[in-house]
Amino acid sequence: MVHIFDTRQLDTTGIIAATALETDDGLALFDTGPESTFLNVAAELRENGFSLKDVRHVFLSHIHFDHAGAAWRFAGSGATIYVHPRGAPHLIDPTRLVDSATRIYGAEMERLWGRVAPIPAEKVKVLQDMDVVRVGQFEVRAIATPGHATHHHVYQWDENVFGGDVAGVRIDGGPPVPPFVPPELDIESWQQSIEKIRMMNPARLYLPHFGLIEGSISAHLDALEERIRRWALWFRDRIRAGRDEAHLIPAFAGYLAEELRAGGATEELIRDYECADPSFMAVSGAMRYWRKHHPEEISGDNS
Ligand SMILES: [Zn+2]
Asked: What's the fold here for domain 2-224?
C-alpha cells in the first residue's frame, strides 16, 4: 500500500508530495518535502494510523529542499536516509547547500523551506547506481538518473517507480513538464535517464510533483521528452540571438503559460505549475547548460 501525503507547502495542495510505502519493516518514505511542512506530514502520518517512528527508511531522489528538506527531522526520529553519493556530503554538512540556496531565495529561505540541520553521518546510507535495499518484503533499487540534477536517483520496487524530478512535474491532470534548474541541468543525460525509466516499463509512476500516474506512462514520458527537446532549443535560439536573463525570464514565463493555456489549463493551474516548478529557474538553468555543454551552438550571431 502506498500513501501519497500532501505536504501543503505554503498552504497549497497538490504541489509537493511525500510518498510512503507500507512494508513489513515500517514505512519507506520517498522524498520528505521541505522542513517547513514536516508537521503537516507528521499529522498525515497520524491520521493514517502511523507515528513518526514508523518511518524507518527515507529514500531521497535528490537533495533539493522541496524533496529532502525534512530528511534531518526523520533521521532525528530514527530513519535511515538513502541518497546518491554526491548528495550525501551535503546532508551531513549542509553549509554549502544553504549558501547556494540563499543566493537564489534570499530572505524567503525559511518561509519557503524551513530550517536546515546536519544529519549524523551514521544515519546516511549512500546508494550507488543499481544498488538494492531490502525493506521488509520489498527490494528497492536505486537507479542513477541525472539530467535535472547530477545526484538524482529514481527508485524501483516491483512494478513501481518513484520518479523524482527527472520523471517530470505533472499537476492535477495537466501535461508533464521538465523542471529545468541550475546548476546541473543536462539535456542529454536527462534523455538517457528517461530511456532508463522506459526500460523498467513500470505499471505505476509516482511523482513528487504530484502523485500517481498509471496506465499512460509511455505517453507521459513521450510528452516530457518532447518538451525537454523543444524547450532546450527555444532557449538555445534566444541565447544565440543575444537575449539576456532579464529578457528571457518574462519571455519564458509567457511561453510556458501560453503552452499550458493552449492545452486547456485554467489560470489557477498555470499558477500551480509556477509553484511546483518556477519558470525563472529554467532561464539560468538553460543558460548555464548551453554555455557549459555547447558553447559553440550559442556563439555566432550575437552582433
Ligand atoms: Zn529538484
From this structure: Metallo-beta-lactamase; Chain A (3.60.15)
CA of 165 to the centre of ligand 1 (A): 6
Answering whether pTM is above 0.90, one says: yes
Could you tell me the distance, in angstroms and rounded to a whole number, from the CA of residue 287 to the centre of ligand 1?
A: 17
15-27 as b/e: b if 16+ CB within 10 A: bbbbbbbbbeebb
Q: Which residue bears the cell 494510523?
A: 49
Per-residue pLDDT at 127? 98
Closest CA to 8 of 46, 45, 39: 39
Phi and psi angles of residue 123, each rounded to the nearest 5 degrees, phi first: -90, -10
Q: How far is the CA of 129 from the centre of ligand 1 (A)?
A: 19
For residues 105 and 113, the answer to whether their CB atoms sit within 8 Å is: yes
Q: Where are the domains of the chain?
A: 2-224, 230-298
**How far apart are the CA of 61 and the centre of ligand 1, in A?**
8
Contact 194, 223 (CB under 8 A): no
> What does the alpha-carbon distance between residue 153 and residue 163 come to, in Å, rounded to a whole number?
8
How many A from CA of 78 to the centre of ligand 1? 25
Task: Quick: pLDDT tens for 69-96.
Answer: 999 999 999 999 999 999 999 999 999 9
260 grid coordinates: 499550458
CA–centroid distance, residue 300 to ligand 1 (Å): 32
How far apart are the CA of 204 and the centre of ligand 1, in A?
21
